[in-house]
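Work Package 3 (structural annotation) set out to generate three-dimensional models for the target panel prioritized at the project kickoff. During this period the team completed the workflow that converts sequence records into discrete structure tokens, so that structures can be stored uniformly alongside our sequence database. As a representative example, we reproduce one entry of 161 residues exactly as it appears in the project archive.
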Amino acid sequence: MKKLILAFCLITAACFFNPIQAQVSVNVNFNVDAQPEWGPTGYNQVNYYYLPDIETYYYVPRHQFVYLNAGHWVFAASLPARCRDYDLYRGYKVVLNEPRPYLHHDEYRPRYAHYVGYYNHQHPLKEHGNKHYDQDENGPGNNGHGHAYGHYKKDHSKKDN
């Protein structure tokens, strides 16, 4: 019995003199380094870009373009031949941070159609000296849909989230 009481006292003393410390960790996923150099500046985290000019998506984590071909979504490392003359640096990119936005293409195509031909309104990462940002996940002064640094073109068709 004395051993049991002694063991209890030692365990209690150990807990008292060496309290368990709670650890809080905040996991902030930044993928600025994974973003292509033609991507717009101002975003710490990007899952997809939507390119309204060519109705194509770009999946940043896997560096893949996603586009329709004969009614099926194709994932490829490069743009299709029909888009070979498209300038990724000039064209407008809409940032979409949701899983598989191409499955909602019928919603995004009309919502961002007014950006077709809306060239040179975003600064590509290639032009930015420091690609790392201290702002929130959507970057400075934007709403998470590719409208950074005051290059927001009013979208009257946008639905409230």
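The first helix runs from residue 2 to 17.
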